[in-house]
Amino acid sequence: MASGSDRNPIIIGGLPSQVPDFDPEETQEWLDSLDAAVDERGRERARYLMLRLIERAREKRVAVPEMRSTDYVNTIATKDEPFFPGNEEIERKILNATRWNAAVMVSRAQRPGIGVGGHIATFASSASLYDVGFNHFFRGKDDGKGGDQIFFQGHASPGVYARAYLLDRLTEKQLDAFRQEKSKFPDGLSSYPHPRLMPDFWEFPTVSMGLGPLGAIYQARMNRYMEARGIADTSDSHVWAYLGDGEMDEPESLGQLSLAAREGLDNLTFVVNCNLQRLDGPVRGNGKIMQELESQFRGAGWNVIKLVWDRSWDPLLAQDRDGILVNKLNTTPDGQFQTYATETGAYIREHFFGDDHRLRAMVENMTDQQIQHLGRGGHDHKKIYAAYAAAKAHKGQPTVILAQTVKGWTLGPNFEGRNATHQMKKLTAEDLKRFRDRLHLPISDKELEDGNPPYYHPGRDSEEIQYMHDRRKANGGYVPTRVVRAKPLPLPDDKAYAGAKKGSGQQKIATTMAFVRVLKDLMRDKEIGKRFVPIAPDEYRTFGMDAFFPSAKIYNPLGQIYESVDRELLLAYKESPTGQMLHDGISEAGCTASLIAAGSAYATHGEPLIPIYVFYSMFGFQRTGDQFWQMADQLARGFVLGATAGRTTLTGEGLQHADGHSQLLASTNPACVAYDPAYGYEIAHIVKDGLRRMYGENSEDIFYYLTVYNEPIQHPAEPADVDVEGILKGLYRVNQGDKGEHAAQILASGVAVPWAIEAQRILADDWNVKADVWSATSWNELRRDAVEAEEHNLLHPEEEQRVPFVTRKLADAEGPKVAVSDWMRAVPDQIARWVPGTYQSLGADGFGFADTRGAARRFFHIDAQSIVLGVLTELAKEGKVDRSLLKQAIDRYQLLDVAAAEAGEAGGDA
User: Which residues form the Transketolase N-terminal domain (predicted)?
Assistant: First the structure.
């Protein structure tokens, strides 16, 4: 280790500068002893003694500062390595076959006429890390439980396919259909781990980098949650997340490390493949990424195991009595190690060992070839096994294994450690021959020179294949495997929704509260009530859900070991080890990860959970949209509530809180069924149908998104002849006009429905117009239905042509159609081409701002009076009314003066 100011301090803080010295004489004796050790034995020996003293102090429970980083050597000493229970020779043969088939699969995918590519180098670096896991650690699902949850690094998928091929889980035909998912259907293999595309194989989508580590943390936490609440036995499940060192720069990768440590998730292991390379070049060319990550994980409270060097370094390190070799390892930057990975033994002898006679002496009896093959720990089965075993045995903390490897390992000098290796997809004949020779495979030169290189299979009855099957049998079955064992849930009857259907009477409530009341009744259901998982980012009170605290309680594995400040109140904050509510703090990303873990529990553990994720609408699809895409890919189910929705409804919060576009963002997600309901009875029918579609017979891999508002309104009781089909499909007539000469139609959604009804009254009283009001519960579903109809008609011209639901619904509706919402116009404009007759939309386009609701709506021209102007304008276009009326309406309602608008309803957080 470097000394003095040239190196970073090992210990951060904890200096005794403010502590009085009660025995200066004793203190001086200790300092003199240290000085003597330095003077007589050298700084490295003194440092070693200090570290041993710190270790002993911890054993004696003496509080000392944490170590930020340790030497650049393996955490587990050679003498402490456990017995390796496998057959290394057989496992090496298996790994060689897997390496070959993975590379050949990608190379063949680049053949002329296909050219879909793939990635070779990532798996080449991490192959041994996976192999030890497959042979000795990963638990399958054959016992009927969830087994281990393994988050495979996305770019390593070819290696997982290659191993599955050896086990007869995939065929050669399927390998040749890599990245040809439709043209080679049903044999096509997805490019990366995509459960939606391969629902019987992959469990967790991970290639959107950063989401894998985040998802793994919350999966481990969900396992504990399900166990604590008695829903599933997850005691034998371990979560493994395979990550890249470059990936750890994503904020999501490290953002929730503290949660894992805080909750003691010792059922979680991160394996970071430190091949020291990003996609374009070094991760930390001038630094040391393993040391940096060690500091970050240690500081967050994780157990850190460094796996830096393979066994060939053991004799050299055993000679290092002066610490000169360790010092050299500590001070050599990653960029230089990458160079060593590509250079000759002579170069390494001169540039690594050559600048100190003691280092030169260590390798004087080694050949250049032996020096060149001094390897990285992530390629050594015994060292990897020791690290995994230590991780599984460690209690009270999550573990991270930092394993150093070489990107492109074994692929030859054109690939190994090269900056461009991530983008290299094709092996030349010479590359293949070198690769074959290194792997000792019985493949002839002619096979490599004529056409596509062949796959290699040692034979179903070979020792290697039998060994693979035996190891998977001993570990509970094949992985990865996705199995859906969950049975349909018994769904609540209509009584659970009766309260919402009665309306709110004279009381005004927001649609957020209307939903919360539905949820409260559902959580009382004896059959499925316990399966609801409320999730919120430190906003339960904002959404009126603090009433759940005393009964459902907030999940905390430690319970509540303090006296709550509001313990005397009826709605006191209450934490419990068996709590039902997940309170993930101010972290939308963390909450969405909880949503995904809960929403896929039906497959992961065979026990359905019904997550209810409630959040500030603006901070959903906009902030964590990538995770909602991940949710769709993972086939997760549940309800997502964009509360405090709308661009004008949140009054004083302003621009960054004003959501006028999340419905549009939601429309881009094919798995998302999005609604913008206006009344409680609409919410009741939507939730009921959502439970049926996601958790009943013939369940679908979808999730529901409801935007709800914080503006109090009176909710009418459900009409006797309520159009349930219209509510669910996206459009129904909520209020029919009863007087007026000229007909018109107003389509409104969510909080805009009351404005439309007020506009209906004004039109009848002041302008002799009879307008019907329609509640557009889902612009998105209307469009989706219409697109499906058009697609069918395009491809089936000989059959009876389908008519979109919105077209049929409005076919007999007289007059122009004017759409209005608290969203930008692009939301209702989604259905424009399928609306018969004249169609116009009003919307809140542009940035939001802080003001009264009335002023904001007047500014965007979406209030009742502006709707009136919109209807008159369309009637004037049709020649039904004189255009002079338009200026009269503008002047009459002072539509050009924002300050002239009434303030509108105030308050209403929920």
Answer: 151-307
* Tens digits of residue pLDDT in 315-353: 999 999 888 999 999 999 999 999 999 899 999 999 999
Tokens describing residue 197: 């595309």
Question: Is position 174 annotated in a ligand binding site?
Answer: no
Q: How far apart are CA 645 and CA 910, in angstroms?
A: 11
pLDDT tens for 867-908 read: 999 999 999 999 999 999 999 999 999 999 999 999 888 776
Other beta carbons within 10 Å of 565? 9
Peptide bond into 442 cis (omega under 30): no
pTM value > 0.90: yes
Which CA distances in Å does 901 have to 761, 806, 846, 896? 18, 33, 19, 10
Give CA–CA dist 191/185, Å, rounded: 14
Instruction: Give the residue among 106, 97, 99 at the shortest CA–CA distance from 427.
Output: 106
Contacts of 528 (CB under 8 A, 6+ apart): 489, 490, 491, 492, 522, 610, 695
β partners of residue 714: 508
Does the annotation place 275 within a ligand binding site?
yes
Name the token pair of 308.
């830096």
Which regions of 370-445 does DSSP assign to beta strands (E)?
399-404
Long-range contacts of 784-787 (CB under 8 A, 24+ apart): 784/667, 785/729, 785/730, 786/831, 786/833, 786/834
Q: Which of 282, 196, 250, 896 is nearest to 600 (CA)?
A: 196
Residue 245 is labelled as binding a ligand? yes
- Please give the backbone phi and psi of residue 413, each rounded to the nearest 5 degrees, phi first: -65, -20
Cα dihedral sign for 178, 180, 182, 185?
negative
Bridge partners, 67 (sequence order): 11
- Count the neighbouring beta carbons within 10 Å of the beta carbon of residue 631: 29
Collapsing DSSP states into helix, strand and coil, what is residue 747?
strand
User: How does 141-160 read in b/e, with b if 16+ C-beta sit within 10 Å?
Assistant: beeebbbbbbbbbbbbbbbb
Distances (CA, A) of 847 to 103, 596, 624, 851: 50, 31, 20, 13
Residue-level length of the chain: 910
Query: Rounded to whole angstroms, how far apart are CA atoms 302 and 192?
Result: 29
Q: Report helix, strand or coil for 192.
A: coil
Partners of 646 in beta bridges: 659
pLDDT of amino acid 19: 56
DSSP assignment string, 776-844: -S-HHHHHHHHHHHHHHHHH-TTSPPP--HHHHHTTT--S-EEEE-SS-TTTGGGGGGGS-S-EEEE--
Nearest CA among 670, 671, 620, 668 for reference residue 641: 620
Between CA 775 and CA 110 the distance in angstroms is: 52
Residue type at 609 in one-letter notation = L
The confidence band for 12, taking pLDDT boundaries of 50, 70 and 90, is: very low
Which residues have a Cβ under 8 Å from the Cβ of 196 and sit 6 or more positions away?
Answer: 205, 632, 633, 634, 635, 671, 701
* Sign of the dihedral through C-alpha 825, 829, 835, 836: positive
SS3 392: helix
Give per-residue pLDDT as tens, 269-294: 999 999 999 888 899 999 999 999 99
Rounded to a whole number of angstroms, the distance between the first and last alpha carbons of the chain is 59
- Angle of the 381-393 helix axis to the 88-108 helix axis, nearest 10: 100
Contact present, 821 and 827 (Cβ < 8 Å):
yes
- The Cα 212–Cα 67 span in angstroms is 28
- The answer to whether the beta carbons of residues 331 and 285 sit under 8 Å apart is no
Q: What are 136-153's pLDDT values in tens digits?
A: 999 999 999 999 999 999
The DSSP letter of residue 646 is B
DSSP code per residue over 536-551? ESS-TTTTT-GGGHHH
Are 908 and 850 within 8 A, CB to CB? Answer: no
Q: How many Å is the Cα radius of gyration of the chain?
A: 33
